Amino acid sequence: MTVFYRNEQKEPLPPELKGGVVAIGNFDGVHRGHRSVLERALSLAEARGVPALVLTFEPHPRTVFKPDQPVFRLTPAPLKARLLEAMGFRSVIEYPFDREFSQRSAEDFVTSILADWLKASAVVTGFDFHFGRGREGGPAYLMEAGRRHGFDVSLIDAFRDEGAEVISSSRIRALLGEGDVAQAAGLLGYRYTVEAEVIGGEQLGRTLGYPTANMRLVPETELRAGIYAVRFRRPDGSLQDGVASYGRRPTVTDNGAPLLETFLFDFSGNLYGEVSSVSFFGYLRPELKFDGLDPLVAQMQQDEAEARALLSGVTPLGELDATIAF
User: Fold this and answer.
1) What pTM value is reported for the model?
2) Residue 249 vs residues 9, 58, 253, 261, 320: alpha-carbon distances, Å
3) Domain locations in the chain?
4) How far apart, in Å, do the first and last CA atoms of the chain sit?
């Protein structure tokens, strides 16, 4: 799996990746809706005997145009690349998105990137994909440009769930904001997962018999504060079930960033400095304020018991879930 953060003006594409089928989109979340586009690209590439590539853009365009309102990313670039690799893509091209790029014409995008640099034999994208300065390039333009430049174009309709609702990244973000990680997982096709470095904390949990692995998540994370049943994956791939508390710590030390504190069941060891991931399986309760440490510990014991019970019966939702959380 090759991940590029490059552009055609500075870096040549390796010859073995040219002439492939290119899926284009942001694909934040790599959710079930995205996979209707991605799976079409994979099937075309297999039929033609060419590599399957993903062309995506980093950072998210809204972060560039509205830096004071950054997007809550469901899958930061490294996690997104791993999910796409698990699906079978040969390479992910993370194209730098900035204001200069946003002013390039639709024809420039097609000619310089798709035709000359990637030498795409086919392009697959959503039915509403727009590109180029002022979003001047749309589906009809892309189809016509493909005929001129010699690549096929497949436009995929919006994918709907079992209730006939369109699956979208914004819909999943809203569910996570409500703490509904179970329904979000149904739309993602895998358990919502975050990744960060384990950092030192105040060690209050250790004194109470519940030492935690602490992670500072990005400020734009909109996951509902509360207690969750989770699964923790270390860099070596080993897994531990646990219970996690998520919330904000508006102190000078943490700069108000969200903090995730995970108690790992039946584990002892040093995790500091490891970049690990946490997958969310169930929401247990909101954050509560207790009158003293004794009722807090009693509640933590109950949280542990509920999380153990929930996690004892879980099974993968599919191949991606098995890759991420099992």
Assistant:
1) 0.89
2) 44, 29, 9, 11, 32
3) 2-156, 169-325
4) 21
Provide the β-strand partners of residue 276. Answer: 196
Asked if 245 and 287 count as a contact pair (C-beta separation under 8 A), the reply is yes
How many whole angstroms separate alpha carbon 2 and alpha carbon 92?
A: 6
Phi, psi torsion values for 52, nearest 5 degrees: -100, 125
pLDDT in tens, 30-82: 999 999 999 999 999 999 999 999 999 888 888 888 888 888 999 988 899 99
Instruction: Count Cβ atoms below 10 Å from residue 135 Cβ, excluding itself.
Output: 11
Tell me the two tokens of residue 9. 């003006």
Task: Find out whether 124 and 22 touch, Cβ atoms under 8 Å.
Answer: yes
Q: How many residues does the chain have?
A: 326
The CATH class, in words, for 169-325 is mainly beta
Residues 77-121 have pLDDT tens digits of: 889 999 999 999 999 998 888 888 889 999 999 999 999 999 999
Domains 2-156 and 169-325 alike in fold: no
Q: Report which secondary-structure segment, H or E, holds 78.
A: helix 77-87
Pairing of strands 226-233, 275-285: antiparallel
E strands in the chain: 2-4, 21-24, 52-58, 91-96, 122-126, 152-156, 193-199, 213-216, 226-233, 239-248, 258-264, 275-285
State whether CATH 3.40.50.620 applies to domain 2-156.
Answer: yes
Residue range 188-216, pLDDT digits in tens: 999 999 999 999 866 555 555 578 999 99
